[in-house]
Amino acid sequence: MTPARSATAVRIGRPPLRRRTEFWAYAAFGWLTASFVWHVGMGVDYRSSMGDGKGAPAWVFLAYDGLVAVMSAVGAALALATVRPWGGRLPVWLVRLPLWCGAVLLVVRGVPGLVENITTATGLTPYGLLGLAHEPVDRASGEFWTSMAINTYFFVGAVVLLPLVVLHGRQRRHPGQEKSAA
Fold it and tell me: Global pTM?
C-alpha cells in the first residue's frame, strides 16, 4: 500500500469528527430556529397565511402550523443536544429517532418538490413532473417562484439535518475520536 492510500493519509485533510458534527448541528439549529419563527409568524398572521380561505378551516391550519412549530422547536433543541454536554445525558434514541424522522420528512418533502421546480423552470416538464397540470406552468409567475423558494428551503433543511444525524451516529460509535478532536 502506498503512503497516499493509507488509512491515515485519507483522514489528514478532513476536519475531526467532532468539528464536522458541530458544524452540521449548528446549521440544523439555525434552520430549525428559522422554521420555528416562520411558523409562529404564520400562526399569528394566519388569515394572510391561509390565502383566499377556500382551503381547510382556520383551526385545521392553526393545528397543523402549531404542530410544525413544536416539531421545529424540539428539533432545534435536539440538534444542540448532539454537541452540547447536557445532550450526552439524554438517551441516544431520544435524540436520534426524532432527528431521523425529521431528516426523512424533509428529504421526502424537499427533494421531489425542488426537482419538479427545477425541471419545470428549465422547460423539461412544463406540465409538472408528473405531467398532471391542465396547462403549462407559468414560469414567470410569483406563485411559481414562491414555490421554488419554499421547496429550496425544505431541501436545505434536508441537507443540514441528514449529515447531522449520520455524524452523530458515528460520533457515538467512535467516542475516542471525539476526545482527540477537542
Answer: 0.78
